[in-house]
Design brief:
Order of helices and strands: HHHEEHEEHEEHH
Radius of gyration: 21 Å
Structural class: alpha+beta
Number of helices: 7
Helix content: 40-55%
CATH class of the largest domain: Alpha Beta
Distance between the termini: 75 Å
Number of strands: 6
């Protein structure tokens, strides 16, 4: 190691920034963890430690546990019953990229219905907050706001756009096929007749 190496350790340990080979500052490590949670299903702290190690980052399970708590990560149920860590919200000022919205809706939305300027999204139990947060951060100007429960997200849509158009757009983003959409429309029409 040379003295010009920015990650060189002092004789007493890491330099003042906490950065030694394989070690990052807390904020840098948490940023990497957030990116991992956004890019793939991470089902355990042990898996997260291994994923960080693959990137050359040394972290213990205890450190990862604290980082997950600091980030506000929660366990959500995946389709099929397995659980994975998820971050409920992106920073308030940050707009989520379109591929993030496509991934979240594709992974979590199982049913889309609408009425007037409202769209209802159904998710597996415990997952609605992830979808609501992604929509809130999506930058879709047509979305006035969302309310998320346990397995349902209510999307309030600008009246000029309407629920029908937004439901179609969200079905497309979620990858719900035409046959599934027709089945959902028939179910919704059946409920309207009650």
């Amino acid at each position: 190691m040379t003295t010009t190496d920015a990650t060189a350790a002092t004789p007493d340990g890491p330099d003042a920034t906490g950065a030694a080979a394989g070690r990052l500052t807390k904020n840098q490590r948490q940023h990497r963890i957030a990116r991992l949670l956004e890019s793939q299903a991470v089902t355990s702290q042990t898996q997260l430690v291994a994923l960080l190690a693959e990137q050359g980052i040394d972290a213990t399970q205890t450190t990862v546990s604290r980082d997950l708590e600091d980030l506000g990560a929660v366990k959500v149920r995946l389709p099929g019953g397995e659980t994975a860590y998820a971050l409920p919200e992106l920073p308030v000022q940050q707009i989520a990229p379109e591929d993030h919205l496509r991934r979240v809706l594709g992974d979590w939305v199982v049913h889309v219905a609408y009425s007037g300027n409202l769209v209802v999204l159904r998710t597996p139990p415990g997952s609605a907050h992830v979808v609501g947060s992604a929509l809130d951060r999506s930058g879709l100007e047509e979305v006035v706001g969302t309310v998320a429960g346990d397995d349902t997200v209510l999307v309030v849509v600008d009246e000029r756009v309407g629920g029908n158009a937004m439901a179609a757009q969200l079905r497309d983003v979620a990858g719900i096929t035409g046959a599934q959409a027709l089945a959902h429309k028939s179910e919704a029409n059946g409920k309207d007749g009650d």
